[in-house]
Amino acid sequence: MKSLAKQETQPKPRLIVRLGAFLASHHILFSVICCFAGIIALLLLPSLAKNTYLSENALIPGSANPLFSTEDAIEANRFMKGIEAAARDSRGVIGMANFIAQQIEALGAEVCYHKFLPHSKNFHPLKFFTSMTNDIAIQPNGTTTNFGMNTVGIVRAPRGDGKEAIVLVTPYNSQRVQSNELLSLALGFSVFSLLSRAAWLSKDVVWLSADSQFGEYAAVSAWLNQYHNPVFLSHSVGLHTKMYGANHLYDANSEKTEVTAFKRAGTMAAALIFKVGETRRFSDRDSVMIYAEASNGQMPNLDLLNVVHYLAVHRQGFRVNIAAFSSLLSSAWLRVIAEILHTLGSVLRKINPDWKLDIAVPDYVEGTANLANSMYNQALGVPTGSHGAFRDYQVDAVSLEFSPTFHVKNENAKSLFLLRGGRLIEGVARSVNNLLEKFHQSFFLYFLTAPSKFISVGVYMIPFALLLAPLPIVAAALADGSRSMEKTVDKLTDDSKADDFADILQSKGGSWKWLRAAKLVLNGNF
After folding, report:
1. Radius of gyration of the chain measured on its C-alpha atoms
2. Where are the transmembrane segments (predicted)?
3. Is residue 248 within 8 Å of 263, Cβ to Cβ?
């Protein structure tokens, strides 16, 4: 009677507890259903992608007529010939940097050099989670032959207060400069020259000619490190210090490098890294490859990509591409899945016209290849270009790689390419210049299936949640099974006649004791 009274007085467990116990008791079936549903949801993601759209009205891309003209393209050709001659006659990294600085000074803009050393490969546990450090190595003679030299030009905005800036980056290898890198520098200088005369600028413009002999990321990261983390040294230490991130000026008359004050602009609103890649002669038109993935899976605001895509496609006639897994583009099983989903989507669309899941088979295959590459890069956490260094400082940035279809010696085609490329970069700078605040309206968490299609975080979290849902349920089932096994062993060990059976249960139940050890290890690490 007392036991019945106790059972009546005990409150019933909550519904969520009973539901958890039920799922734990059927964890195998639950895991199979969730994994199957998660895989189906993953395969449906390319069909659920939406068209990109501008969320920030202040950007208004293409609202003004471009000012970049054929005269600017001629100036770019003249610059390219001059820097090509400087590259042949230069002595190390100083010659090309000195020529770029002279051309910037002729525009009336501010210029300085930024000397840096390659990144140290030594691992330090206190610097594992951050790269925002100043590495200083002092040598007795204070000389080094293995260094890079960035050239920085700054245009002060005539309508601004110097609190914000737009950064343009052009990488080149000063040790083995190629013709496409010279074309990149010519394009960057021509745009910078145009912006130095622009009366509509309300943000400062910084043009960084990044010496990428140690890698594009290393050059940009070194400059950003010094930009946001200045180093203060005494005069005696500065003369005999090989400093990572030092600022230098080169005197052509005395052929000496002198330490000067590091020049800065305002807070960076956005950054655009652009370069000219290899020529694709079998393509029908020039193309632009967009790289957006930064470190630790960070992505720039989607509005920045939308501006680049709109101006490149609808204004300048470029073909815009994003990186994809080429092996999936020719996959037979993926094409079969695409045909099945296309057939099912057509049937569902007849039932409800709002269910638009019947995308074309080539679009599905290409979208899946792009999506897989986007997911892989974000999961890997390694930046796909030097734009990743800007995201470490919460600056939205993308990298553009132009792929022309002409030969470099074709002057007419080269001038036309410079005209279109310059107008594209000018248009992006105009849109960023219109911003009154930082990018915040659009998405920061998304996957790209095409340059003009994306999957937001609210959609792609559904398959991830389905794939992860069985983990806590199976863990609860394992913990409950281990607990019940220990109780059974304790009960049987009290009976001397069941010693052999207790040993068997202990041998079976002991396989789950690693959970307790893993818990202790995790608690110790955290």
Report:
1. 30
2. 21-45, 457-479
3. no
